[in-house]
Amino acid sequence: SLYVSEYFSQSAQKLSFYSWYGNAKLFHFHVPEDTVLLRWLLQASRGKGPECTDMEITVHFRYGAPPVINPLGTRFPANATIRPSYNISITLSSAVQNTTFVNITTPAAGDWFIAAHLPEAAGRIEVKGFSTPCPYIFQADMFVLRLTDMPVLEPGVAMPQTIVSSAKPLHVKVFVPKHAAGMRFELRSCVTSEQKACAVRVVLGSITLPQSFQRIVTCTGSVNCGLALDSPPWEKWLQIMVESLGTANASVSVEMLASFTACRPGSTSSFLNFSSLSQSQTGPRPGSAGAAGSSTLSTGEASHNASNQRSFCVQNQPIVREDLDVVSVRYRLLNGPSVPVNSLSPTLLLLNLNTGMDSGGSLVVNLLLNKTSVSLANATVVACVSAASPVLSLNATQNCSTAFFQGYPLSVRASSSEAVLIVLYPQTDVWFLSLQLICPKGQGECNAAEAKVTVFAYLTPCFNDCGPYGQCSLLRRHGYLYAGCSCKAGWGGWSCTDDTKAQSVGAQNLATLLLTLSNLMFLPAIAVAVYRYYLVEASVYTYTMFFSTFYHACDQPGVAVMCIMDYDTLQYCDFLGSVVSIWVTILCMSRVKKILKYILFVLGTLLIAMSLQLDRRGVWNMMGPCLFALVIMIAAWVYHGVKRRHCYPSSWKRWVFYLLPGITLAFIAISVYAFMETNENYYYTHSIWHVLVACSVAFLLPPRDKHKKPWAWSKKLTCRYQICQNDREELYAVT
Fold first, then answer.
1. d(Cα 551, Cα 562) in Å, to the nearest integer?
2. Kind of pairing between the strands at 136-147 and 13-14
3. Domains plus CATH for the chain?
4. For residues 385 and 391, what is the distance between their CA atoms, to the nearest angstrom?
5. Which region ranges are annotated with the description Disordered (predicted)?
6. Per residue in 702-715, pLDDT tens?
7. In the 8-state DSSP scheme, what is residue 107?
8. What is d(CA 616, CA 610) in angstroms, rounded to the nearest whole number?
9. Burial class (CB in 10 A: 0-12, 13-18, 19+), 94
């Protein structure tokens, strides 16, 4: 045998603490056919700074689709399939780097996925630039050992083979044709080179994670042994491994034989399918010959199928896959949404999910029983959703399983006429929906009965669009797209249906009111600015108060939301107003000449607008203008102090009652903003930030110029009566 080794690698990714599926870093690999050994090389490393601590990385594996994980222990939506993923833990303690190997023998060919993440996120809101997070890097590489000349076992033809030694197992493969109802594998004429009792182990199928359904049988002696499989995977290569359990140097000669049992499907004619598709898209014209011909053919075909129903093992229903969008597919039945279900043979629907881009969503199957169509009150329609091959024996065992896949059962009856199934991240394959009528007293009483079941099947990125408290996000890893739900307002779970930590509507309203009404504390600062003739500064504060109020009204995670314009515009205006308010306040305190002050106002605002466009959440967008304005203010104060030959500002009352309280409030506000905010306390800590900043501005604004008198409304309008009198005279003269 000739083995070929291949190596596949992907770029390393920086890991994140887990709060939703988007924090897990996904790796997508494709395992080629005839692979007998798969080895994962997992490399994890961390930074060397003092902020780096011991960390545990969780790595999940799955075949056919991204792994379904639940690190937070939240609830899944009702009727969702839950099969825990296979995972391992990698610990980074004293070592800066950790290398781990994971070996899988006879892996299934196709897509394999790896997801890695750090533990649960702490929920602290970190300002970009104030703290440096420790980088944790993860990379996955794949080595495969592939057999280039794997022998092919032809159905019905005995093939002799020799196992050279127990260290070198024998690998063969057989192709399973479509509509194979069963397969039987036999091992005959087992002879050893040492003329001892023959002992071999036969493994049928490949390993898939998180669940593996390999079939294993041990054969001893010269007696023939075999293994029967029900519903083997259609149109796929099935690997068979035979290994010797005897001594190391003894060879074993065996003869292998594989045979299949065919299933004869029954379905409507292809002409009827195309006719139904044309009518469903364009609609038949009334009175047309084509419509009459289709009706006649449909009646004749139905009677023909009814007469030959007993000779078919399954009844196929024509179905069309309709692609709507990315990871969004609808399945439409050509003969209408209702399908006939009887007890003689299962009704089969084919759901094609093998494009390679369908495994990143959720498959939803909804069954609705027409109660008037069932003549037997105790009859039950049993259904099974399976991948790779359908379940063909529902009437005998009611077991929803095939040779290498455990399906998902459903059932509807008169007392419970609706059933829903949600398959999260369905694996890439052809899926089947089998339906059959079951009677409690035996199939004899069901022979003449028939039920009508309405079937709705579709693939959606996020089930129920993540509900009212979630946002469906489309994620990407290279060319592969998948979806995940980001939950809000304390809700959690795969589809944001877990309300264990959810905020009540009252708490949501309180959070909205605190974050919006706290901006009204800018009103005293605006009044002080207007009273002291700082009209430009007052305009900036008004702008900041307005957009901060409506940004936080739009930014709320729950139902108490009001957006007067686009969210991104509101956020940008809020950030711009906040930074410009600090800029103009410090420049106003410097008491430079008016023309220079207004030039700095305009230039600074333009530069701040540019920097916010480049990086909206960077700490230097706020700290840069603040530090530059402080340098200007200190330089101006030193100039005034040297010129007057005493400290500036000269009044101790100005320092004690205005400057020191304003500076103290500003430092407290910065501390709350940078170090105390978390996801849980955001609504009141950020409200405190609003109040403290607004109050500090009111304290820090300098007094008005000495040559300007206070606002006196009576003196400004001294001739109001005279104006009216003159107007009257003018009107009288014109008249």
1. 9
2. antiparallel
3. 3-147 (2.60.120.380), 157-262 (2.60.120.260), 312-460 (2.60.120.680), 505-700 (1.20.1070)
4. 8
5. 277-304
6. 987 766 666 654 44
7. B
8. 10
9. exposed
